[in-house]
Amino acid sequence: TQELLIKSDKLSAVGQLAAGVAHEIRNPLTALKGFLKLLGARSDKEKTYIEIMDKELGRIEFIVNEFLLVSKPQATHFVERTVGGIVQSTVELLQPQALMNKIEIVTDLDPTLPTVSCDEHQIKQVFINVMKNALEAMAHGGTLRIEACHLPQDKQLKVRFVDQGCGISSERLPKLGEPFYSTKEKGTGLGLMVCYRIIEAHGGFMDIQSKLGEGTTVEISLPITSTAVA
Ligand code: ADP
Ligand code: MG
Questions:
Q1: Which one of 46, 99, 126, 180 is CB 3.0 to 4.6 Å from 189, fit for a cystine?
Q2: Each residue's pLDDT tens digit, 12-30
Q3: Secretion signal: which residues (predicted)?
Q4: Where are the alpha helices (DSSP H) in 138-220?
Q5: CA 178 – ligand 2 centroid, Å
Q6: What are phi and psi of 138, to 5 degrees?
Q7: Cβ(222)–Cβ(118) under 8 Å?
Q8: What is the C-alpha to C-alpha distance for residues 32 and 21, in angstroms, rounded to an integer?
Q9: ipTM of the complex
Q10: 16-74: per-residue pLDDT in tens?
């Protein structure tokens, strides 16, 4: 356990450093955006360039803000949220990585889903970890399906991440969530451990089904706080 503690200490030091870097990026970024607004376009071509630069700077700003949101250690703070909204913003965050890997992300989110009481940043961190694993498992492209549904009589709603990746053998399946269990060269094996911990703290549970060579389905159940309003 001593070794484990040292390792998680190191991780949080790296996380703090990364959050610090993201924070430092924000100030020069604001200056860049400001001065760009002062630039007068002398031609239509220049106008287009300035628009593209402004849009791309906005994108950097969005990513930096999202990054700060998930990397900062925060006290648990429960609020009423729709899971669909959290899924959407997570998808937006990971879309570039998906495109790069020729992966299509398809969402099927019931718009009448009841709300859940959750720590939005933590749930987002779970969705990011699970989605990143799915993208990393689909080295040759494919489809990542994200479904969220709720049966009227249930006290839980379900969010399902279905990938067409490499899959996990039945021998390795029980090992998931163990700290530092990773099959990736640059993996940490901490992602799923954190996910299990967060979902448990929310009174929910996470179930992983997989078939080697076919794909993996991660199902997350979260207790609902209200009944659906049509
Ligand atoms: P890491 O991603 O750093 O390896 P994780 O805790 O996120 O750590 O995942 C642990 C291991 O579980 C991964 O190394 C991989 O072998 C396996 N795994 C998790 N999700 C998937 C998935 N969607 N498809 C295939 N394997 C997966
Ligand atoms: Mg991972």
A1: 180
A2: 566 667 777 888 898 899 9
A3: none
A4: 191-201
A5: 12
A6: -105, 70
A7: yes
A8: 17
A9: 0.98
A10: 677 778 888 988 999 999 999 999 889 999 999 999 999 999 888 877 876 676 565 55
Ligand 2 ion local residues (Cβ < 5 A): 133, 191
Instruction: Give the bridge partners for 158, in sequence order.
Output: 149, 221
108-157 pLDDT per residue, tens: 998 889 999 999 988 998 999 999 999 999 999 999 999 999 988 899 99
For helices 191-201 and 120-137, angle between their N-to-C axes, nearest 10 degrees: 140
Residue 132 CA, ligand 1 centroid: distance in Å: 9
Q: Which ligand is nearest to the CA of 187?
A: 1
Task: Please give, one letter per residue, the 3-state secondary structure of 42-93.
Answer: CCHHHHHHHHHHHHHHHHHHHHHHHHHHHHCCCCCCCEEECHHHHHHHHHHH
Tokens linked to 207 = 């179930």
Q: How many C-alpha atoms does 84 have within 13 Å on its Cβ side? A: 12
What is the CA(191)–ligand 2 centre distance, in A?
5
Strand ranges for the chain from DSSP E = 79-81, 103-109, 116-118, 142-149, 156-162, 205-211, 215-223
Amino acid 46 reads E
Cβ of 22 below 6 Å from ligand 1: no
